[in-house]
Structure formats: structure tokens, C-alpha cells
Design brief:
The chain contains 2 helices and 10 strands. The protein is α+β, with helices and mostly antiparallel strands. The chain has 2 domains: about 45 residues, no CATH class; about 60 residues, Roll (CPE0013-like fold).
Length: about 120
């Protein structure tokens, strides 16, 4: 039997969870809502995260555009996805929701722009 202490990140309450794994049985306590129970179980079975970052934009009104994964990715793929984000470079214009990296690090998730960057008037 294994016990893990977690802080739920599904809402601002930040409940202190105790997750007990006994074979195939997972018990979550300390949560004040169902989202905490789902989070606790998911965190011990297959943890995932949303990855955020910025990418340089050549000829844009601003120098960088914020990006994020369109969906959660396996936690063990985070550094690979970040490496791809750091290697990316774009040319203006960039539209919000535009796919910047398709299937980042083979995770199944695209990296998308979270802001629109127009071309610079001086470029």
C-alpha cells in the first residue's frame, strides 16, 4: 500500500488530499468536491500538465507571443515539449489559436498561440 499527500490544483481552495493506492484500488480523501477526487486519482495513475511558454516573433508589434499546449500532456513529456517551444520562431502576423507546433514531442497535443500579434508598422 502506498500513500501520497497532494495539494489539489483544480480550484482556488487547494484542498490537501491523501491518496491511498492499494493494488488496483485508489482512495482519495480530503477533497471538498468531486474534481479533487478525480485529480487525486489521475495524479497517481497518469499525471498530466498544461505547458506554457513564449516564442519569438520576427516583425511583430511585440517581440514574443505566449503559447500553451491545447490540452494536457503526460508529465514526463514536459521537458521535450519545452525544448520544442524554445526552438520555435515565428514571423508576424500570428493569430490567437494558431497552431505553432503540431503534436509537440509526440504527445498528441498541439502548441497554440494564446495572443494575436500583428505585423509591426515599422517592419
Amino acid at each position: 500500500m502506498e500513500t501520497r499527500e497532494l495539494t489539489c490544483i483544480q480550484c482556488p481552495l487547494g484542498c490537501q488530499l491523501t491518496v491511498t493506492v492499494d493494488g488496483d484500488s485508489i482512495t482519495v480523501t480530503g477533497n471538498t468536491c468531486q474534481r479533487g477526487a478525480v485529480y487525486g486519482e489521475k495524479e497517481v495513475k497518469a499525471p498530466t500538465r498544461t505547458v506554457t511558454g513564449t516564442v519569438p516573433v520576427d516583425g511583430g508589434e511585440i517581440a514574443r507571443v505566449s503559447v500553451k499546449t491545447a490540452s494536457d500532456i503526460p508529465k514526463d513529456k514536459m521537458f521535450e515539449v519545452m525544448a520544442e517551444i524554445h526552438a520555435a520562431r515565428l514571423a508576424a502576423p500570428v493569430e490567437i489559436g494558431q497552431i505553432i507546433i503540431h503534436d509537440a514531442a509526440g504527445s498528441g497535443a498541439d502548441v497554440i498561440a494564446t495572443k494575436t500579434v500583428r505585423k509591426s508598422r515599422t517592419a
